[in-house]
Amino acid sequence: MKLLEERIVKDGQVRPGNILKVDAFLNHQLDVNLLDEIGKEFYRIYKDDGINKILTIEASGIAIACMTARYFNVPVVFAKKAKSRNLDGEVLTSTVHSFTYGKEYDITLAKKFLSPEDKVLILDDFMAVGKAMHGLLDVCQQAGACVGGIGIAIEKGFQSGGDSLRAAGYKLTSLAIIDGMDDDGTIHFRPQEEV
Amino acid sequence: MKLLEERIVKDGQVRPGNILKVDAFLNHQLDVNLLDEIGKEFYRIYKDDGINKILTIEASGIAIACMTARYFNVPVVFAKKAKSRNLDGEVLTSTVHSFTYGKEYDITLAKKFLSPEDKVLILDDFMAVGKAMHGLLDVCQQAGACVGGIGIAIEKGFQSGGDSLRAAGYKLTSLAIIDGMDDDGTIHFRPQEEV
User: Fold this and answer.
1) Chain A residues with CB-CB distance to B under 8 A?
2) What rounded mean pLDDT belongs to chain A?
3) d(Cα B186, Cα B179) in Å, to the nearest integer?
4) Domain coordinates of chain A in residue numbers?
5) CA distances (Å), origin A11, targets B92, B110, B190
6) Helix, strand or coil for residue A24?
7) Best mutation site among A29, A37, A97 for testing chain B: the one with the most B CBs within 10 Å?
8) Residue B88 pLDDT exceeds 60
């Protein structure tokens, strides 16, 4: 998605350790116009796939999920990372070994919000190694929900999470795939054919 | 807001300990159409207040903030609760003593995203005692940012957070104020004049 690639070049910052900071527009400060374009794009790609629910994980996935859900006119459900005193009853849970946070954490989702009747589009802002995504896929499997597609805004192509999911047969779309980042800040995007 | 009050009655659940669960439409599963109506309503109320940024806190505030920001055509910034390996540089920080989570936690916001040039509308899904809101107000004060208004979807009127902010002079709007919840699940809304 050219608009997103251009924004990454303009406002993204490359940091040591293969970190890409996009906090100015994607996951700390949010440009809702850009997010709306992202939502429109995910809708264009997945609108004929029978999606009845958008699934994501807190917190940075929520904005993209909501903007996308507006076009689909379906609910959003987001997996929670922190255990809250308010989370009662039956929950689906999975353990994520996060690269980004350098730690392990559990994700939870109330069982009543995901069922075999659901065909979900899973969305998130970033994919690196793909551990958070595997947690979400695990939760879908536990619920018996079908995964209609996976949509990622920015994939770190050199960290194999996306490639392995594509190889596993998922309809995965990453709007920008970064195959490398140089010390001088140059970002190398993977050329993609328009879907 | 009648639409929200009706939805709370229809899909909200009263639990012991003055807990109101609205997880079916507001803060675990999200009804984006309702959220859009909420955003439209906050815009109607605050559109002449010179707002140039929406401020909220992860995670449940993000959806409301984004939907509202679309109408204002301004960015959203959300305070983070968890320390991430990615959060470098200078941050504003405040400590919140949360009723909902039964614990103390820090919130952080990168300094570059809030400045004396900003006039913010602070939004969140819930207000009980108001500790999270006080954390956000503290962060605004540290940044020198002006608070143009505070918007809350659901206020627990019997937990005084809202009343004390109104008494302090903030332009606070809660779309639904709950003054009591009975054991049989009856919810008592505070009558409000339309602003």
Assistant:
1) 15, 19, 21, 23-24, 28-33, 35-36, 58-59, 62-63, 65-67, 69-70, 73, 75-78, 80-82, 84-86, 88, 100-102, 109-110, 112-113
2) 93
3) 11
4) 2-189
5) 21, 15, 45
6) coil
7) A29
8) no
Do the chains contact at B62 and A67, CB–CB below 8 Å? no
Give the ipTM: 0.93
**Each residue's pLDDT tens digit, A56-68:** 999 999 999 999 9
Q: What is the predicted pLDDT for the residue at B155?
A: 97
Our CA angle for A167, A36, B70, nearest 5°, is 155
> What distance separates the 2 farthest-apart alpha carbons in chain B?
51
Q: Which amino acid is at B92?
A: L
Which of 3.30.160.40, 3.40.50.2020, 3.90.226.10, 2.40.50.140 would CATH assign to domain B2-189?
A: 3.40.50.2020
Q: Tell me: the pLDDT tens digits for B146-162?
A: 999 999 999 999 998 99
Can you give the pLDDT at residue B83?
A: 54
- Closest chain A residue to B57 measured between Cα atoms? A59
